[in-house]
User: Fold these one by one.
Assistant:
Number 1:
Amino acid sequence: MSIIIDEELCTGCASCMESCIYGAIELDNNIAFVLPNCNLCGACVEVCPEEAISLDRDDVKAQKIDISQFKGVWVVAEHYKKKIHNVSLQLLCKGRELADLLQVNLSLVILGTDFDDKLEEFSLYGMDEIIYIKSPILKDYYSDLYTKVITELVLENKPEIILIGATPTGRDFAPRVAKRLSAGLTADCTGLEINLETRNLLQTRPTYGGAIMATIRTPSSRPQMATVRAGIFKMPEKVKKNVNIRKLEYEFKEKDSVLKIVKVISKTRNSVNLEDAKFIVAGGRGVGSKEKFRIIEELAEVLDAELGGSRITVELNWLDPDRQIGQTGKTVSPKLYIACGISGAIQHLVGMQNSGIIVAINKDPNAPIFNWAHYGIVGDLHEIIPALIEEIKKTKSEQ
Amino acid sequence: MCIKQVPGVSEVKIDPNTNTLVREGVLSIINPNDRNAIELALMLKEKHKLEVIALSMGPPQAEEILREVLAMGVDKGVLLTDRAFAGADTLATSHTLSLAIKKILKESNSEEKYLIICGAQAIDGDTGQVPPELAEELGIPQITYVLNIELSEDKIVAERKFRATEIVIIETQLPALISVLNDINKPRYPSIAGIMKAYEKARLTYLDSNTLNADKSKIGLNGSMTEVRKIFIPKRRVNPIMLVGSNEEVVQKLCQHLKEDKIF
């Protein structure tokens, strides 16, 4: 396996050098050459305007499967207290779009118990079919039982796409299922598209902390599996339609799992709910100190908004970790996002770029956050925010 | 323990003028989360009688991180390095790691009782997929996103972060695999004596695809089901409306806009 550069076609334009995140291509005498630290990711192949680069694969690819047998889009539901997690509903919305393009059915797969009286309510979210796996033990999450049930279902029904929430649960069983099925799995996708010709799912995800986006496909294996975080896709509209319900009962006993749930501990502190917040006010390093964060909190209070922050504010202990927004924190999509003193490192941007309206307040006119904001104010946030609080109070009292 | 060498920053910087990656000054380090895995292994070693082996797959320079963990107190390091491993996705990576683990277990006669510890995820790829895939490949139970663990003769009891407000305590038999979060502990620094020891030759073993008897169709690029179609730098999304004037003027303008946008 290697990257081959056709020296006759290479013009020395350096596009490949710029595309290489490993710094593994250099120019010698205006001809590109590959260094030993090349990771064979193939990114340079796509960018070369002269088509001078090719990825030479050994012809030992594992046995190919007949991918045309696989049809349909599945969403595996995550649930909590008899409700479906928002991320699963958002996946149904995206899944509907993909299923329509592919002209196949969209199915929701639920593993649980006592959902019988909820299926009618769930059936409003646009799927064609609900596959309900019922077993009393599945009121809790067991990685091994989930893996067993889902792989068996996949082998029998052969869906071409499976979408799973990138939650601690989804990220636990999805890789295990993928391994058992030898299926490709892409984590934390922020974009999902279909190539209609090949029926390949084009999965775009941030990598290297979001500095780079990669589009990934699984050309020779099915199903194509992807996890997606909450807040990336829209919530579906409710529709009334005929939904086929398949209920399968499993006789699991506790000893069927190698795992034993000793207990579940709930933390009773005020829970922060950034994912569902309509308004968010977030602060960054520019706020200055923990004490000075008070003004950001005040703005949040006036707006009835949830309070958030960039990673550095959590590292400096100005904010609780569960308020962190970005690649290593929460992904949010409020109607209004006010970024105060946040420069806009890409790892923060990937966590809030789907917000409805983004307002940026920063004293540095060159801060990258302005490239992502709908409204920008250059100035000292400690002067602007108090004025803004007054103005909002005034606006509210007029209404 | 499985560890990985990654670029020493959580975010690769982009030069705003050329829109290309800035590579100067980016050192390679141990993936931060993996340091927590090492610290946990060393703490368990202090309490129980066990041997701690660190395993990494990567280019020859990944030897640096194995020397560093040896200096922290790890007993042995194993580096899987071969051009044939390059281009691996998580499926191919977990397969390669499993081959090495099986070999190590067989040679040390510890196939019955072992614990694999991984960091929950790496700061470069950030998928967190290798630990469950490795557990599946080894046919052992997994507990991911672990905040605390008790190890006894033949079982573990682990606290797993389940939701923002919930922790689940799970018990399982050994052998098992866990992946740990960074809140589990504070990793130690290498000691001077440790650094001296780290360069003893016998402590580091190199394995390649031949010594692992690897099926070439299951490793590296060939063994990968996913392939990178393209890599790009995210582009700006909107042209901002910049509000200028006195503080009072700008906040008035902002509220006016937000009213028109039906936010208020």
Number 2:
Amino acid sequence: MLEIILAVLVLVGAVFTLIGSIGLYKLPDFYMRLHGPTKATTLGVGAILVASALYFSFKEETVSLHEVLVTLFLFITAPVSAHLMAKASLHIRTRMESHTQNKP
Amino acid sequence: MKRGTRQTVEKANASTLPRWKKWLPHPLLSLVLWGVWLLLNNTLAPGHLVLGAILAWLIPLLTSSFWPEKVCLRRPGVLLRFIGVVLWDILVANVVVARLILLPSKRLQPGFVTIELDIRHPLGISLLANTISLTPGTVSCDLSADRRQLLVHGLHITDAHQTIDEIKQRYERPLQEIFESC
Amino acid sequence: MLSTVIEISFALVSLALLLSLLRLIKGPDLPDRILALDTLYINTIALLILFGLYQGSALYFEAALLIALMGFVGTVALSKYLLRGDIME
């Protein structure tokens, strides 16, 4: 049972990580590319970390929660770095897709 | 649960023992530091409990001049509900964004929207910006210098007004309740 | 079963790393490269944790934590540099 949960978490995590990078690779302009890594990749890595926390908790039969720390850290820092990168690229006027609505 | 007990501890400090304020300037920060120390060492051994408690007491005390503002949380119920809503939205957001990414990108309609902020508390604003970045198809890009407008980029915006309303209803309102009432 | 799934996940995450690397090479602008580096370090964390699971060793966690800290500081410093033309103020 545990193994199935772990397998699902690891696989879902890896798939979301990959989707984040696909977004980074194929979307046409910087502002759109920003969406992939901030959301999909963060959740993907989060899922893998939760799987790791579960695995070591059951293997060593004690509660092993320090992976939660990395997950929390990632969830706090991902939006911050996304915001900073977006702000920087607005500042240096990175090219944006021509059909973007309501350009600043 | 945890947040609630933290708050009552804080309240007790404020009302019955005002002199504690001087020796324990940021009870919330101390609790978080203690928790992080125990998580980092991945143990509940008595030695680490004591060492962590000492550090959690000393660090806020020695750095208290860097934190002039007092963080206070009202309405733990609203906060818990908000955290639940955001976590659920993050899960939904990821499925939605994954689908958008895998669609042909010609069909996407990216766009910027400007949100007029009603919330004034700085911590509230930064939490709002972070929440926006983590949830459906939106990333917060820039905050105007007077802290009244937030520029948000959406991956696929069909109706700008609806997007703005949703953000205001779902995230700004509860954050305002949590932070503005004190 | 778990080890098979982890092996498949290795492949998926490695592909993600490769795509980020391609974006890093392609650019075309500086923010794109910063974003690619940011994604690269997050993917590396995933790969490390997977390896830790595969080996059944909790040691790799420390490395993952360090990479997370350093990566975040790096991204912030690079963005700041674009924003102000200067890192320290």
